[in-house]
Amino acid sequence: MRHALCLVLSLLPAGGCARLFADVVHQPKSVIVNQLHYMPNAANLMALPQRFPSSTLQVTATADEVNWTYSLGGKEVCRFTAHVADEGQDRSSVWTTSEDISSDGQGFLCGAVNVAGKESVAATIEGRAADRQKVETELAAVVVTNYASMQKSIAKEMTDMAPPKTQCREYGS
């Protein structure tokens, strides 16, 4: 089992695990988990990081958490989790963590996931639309911070999509 030190941060650059958002909600745990698993469209920005080429998203839920697992080129690179704990009397605590599980420098996707995830969870439990302008501003910072990593990943993607190299003979040989 993986153990990671989780720090309270508002935005985590690539690498590590971070506790990104925490709140106490006046609703039962099962209601909150269901709301997070089936986020309203106005609050849900979790598909935003899928705009990277070859990225996919898988969402799973248990009684205590909802997991968004992002893959890039078929490899898992980031796991974002909303944890929900029963606090009694129709109260639940909600917190999110994110783990960069990329092994080849593609952690920039996790930066985008962190931004989209913390705003989507906050908007869902607060019953409001996600603040897209705030998210766009934070995503711009992620792009600037992780530019070299993104450039490397895009170059690799283009190479993988190119036709195979063959050895051609000169005409007439």
UniProtKB/TrEMBL annotation:
Organism: Novosphingobium kunmingense
UniProt keyword Signal present: yes
Keyword line: Signal
Organism domain of life: Bacteria
Signal peptide: 1-22
The protein, known as: Lipoprotein
